[in-house]
Design a protein that fits this description.
hpI Integrase, Chain A; alpha+beta; 3 domains; about 50% helix; three-stranded antiparallel β-sheet
């Protein structure tokens, strides 16, 4: 047998060094693989007997959680954490809080007042768009955006107390610069109730939580100053010449329009503003009864849509409007109704409808000396509707018929015109 060849000492040292290096390298490589395995976190983790799941979407950096409520409903919510070790305790906190709030009869998660208000306003605007006109919903949006949100902001609706609401009402009255009347408070109260209903519907607040309501009783409204029959006649005569004046071209357009507008309000009792300004030629038609033709007009506004009957003299007013409107002037007056012409009735000769006639009407009353009544109260366009109701009641029109014509309630007419009772019954009392 050949003798073992003895390696040089230097070679043995090198080999031992190589062996020791290979032994040292192997654990390091194994450690690297373990590290790589630990960094690959699971996509989802089930907790609390499967009623809480922590997971991460493929395109998200943050972990989400979904949890089961006591009523069996599943809810999703972000943990706001990017690492699993932080997401798990956060998800447990969310789950525990939600179940605890449910046991107390509260919504499973809190939302700021501003968040609830934004949801409510969004839904209100959708309804406004569907209606396509100004309604009471616009007033609700104004109350929420101009008063509720600036005051309550990030507070929680479910934690508000009666004291909070009273302090808000005091702040609101300072913002208004006056003590609001009952009609104004009714708008605030309706907007507040709509906001609460939205919160309950979306689960932001439990229907078992007693949210305090706003006060709806305020200063008693005063009756708007009206015109007497003699003052109405004076106004009509004055407008016959006044409408032809005006230094500027825009005045010469708007004065005739205002004249026709005022006369139509006096002849129909319709509401100034939305109701009157939205009338189109297609909303007017002839209604024949007992061989007599009547002008019937469809109006839609504060209390919905209704048909009203105009005085016969309204035909002259409509003919003046028709003659000035260049795009339809060539059509016969009868054709306007039969063809259901879609253009607006109250507009200038070029088809433009002014944003408001309030300023020009005030100038008309100032020029005619009719701006103030006997009690020095300033008259407005709303005074014409009050005048219509007063004169109709004095003429003997049945209050139920008048309520349907004007789109209001009998109770409202009785409340504002009860002082006429003795005058109306003069024949029986004398």
């Amino acid at each position: 047998m050949p003798a073992a060849v003895k390696q040089p000492q230097s070679q043995q040292h090198t080999d031992r060094h190589a062996d020791s290096n290979s032994v040292a390298i192997q654990p390091l490589a194994h450690h690297g693989r373990l590290t790589a395995l630990r960094s690959a976190s699971p996509r989802s983790v089930s907790l609390r007997d499967g009623e809480l799941v922590v997971y991460r979407r493929s395109r998200s950096l943050l972990y989400q959680c979904r949890y089961k409520l006591a009523d069996g409903k599943w809810v999703r919510q972000s943990t706001g954490k990017a690492s699993l070790e932080h997401a798990i305790p956060r998800a447990c906190d969310i789950y525990d809080e939600a179940r605890y709030r449910q046991r107390l009869g509260l919504a499973h998660r809190t939302h700021s007042f501003a968040h609830i208000a934004a949801t409510c306003v969004g839904e209100l605007r959708q309804q406004i768009d569907l209606k396509g006109k100004k309604t009471a919903l616009n007033d609700y949006v104004s109350c929420i955006e101009r008063y509720f949100v600036p005051y309550f902001g990030e507070q929680q609706l479910e934690t508000l107390t009666r004291t909070d609401v009273l302090q808000f009402e005091a702040w609101r009255d300072r913002q208004l610069g006056r003590r609001p009347k009952t009609s104004t408070l009714n708008n605030f109260s309706s907007a507040w109730n709509r906001l609460i209903a939205t919160a309950v519907q979306h689960g932001y607040v439990s229907d078992r939580v007693p949210v305090p309501h706003l006060t709806s009783k305020g200063e008693k409204g005063t009756t708007r100053p009206a015109f007497s029959s003699e003052e109405v006649e004076k106004l009509l005569v004055f407008m016959e010449h006044w409408h032809q004046g005006g230094r500027l071209a825009v005045e010469r357009e708007i004065r005739p329009l205002l004249r026709d507008y005022v006369e139509m309000l006096l002849l129909t009792g319709m509401r100034h503003g939305t109701e009157a300004m939205n009338i189109r030629w297609s909303h007017i038609e002839w209604h024949t009864r007992d061989h007599v033709r009547y002008l019937r007009i469809w109006v839609s506004g504060k209390t919905g849509g209704r048909w009203l009957i105009a005085k016969h003299r309204a035909v002259e007013v409509l003919k003046r409007l028709h003659a000035r409107q260049k795009d339809i002037a060539a059509m016969s007056f009868e054709t306007l109704f039969s063809e259901r012409v879609p253009q607006l009735v109250f507009r200038s000769s070029d088809g433009h409808q002014p944003h408001s006639l309030v300023g020009t009407f005030r100038k008309l009353l100032r020029d005619s000396g009719l701006l103030k009544d006997a009690e020095a109260k300033s008259r407005t366009l709303y005074s014409i509707r009050h005048t219509y109701a007063t004169l109709e009641l004095l003429a003997g029109t049945d209050i139920h018929t008048l309520a349907r014509q004007m789109g209001t309630s009998v109770l409202m007419l009785e409340r504002h015109y009860s002082k006429l009772s003795a005058t109306l019954a003069a024949g029986k009392l004398a």
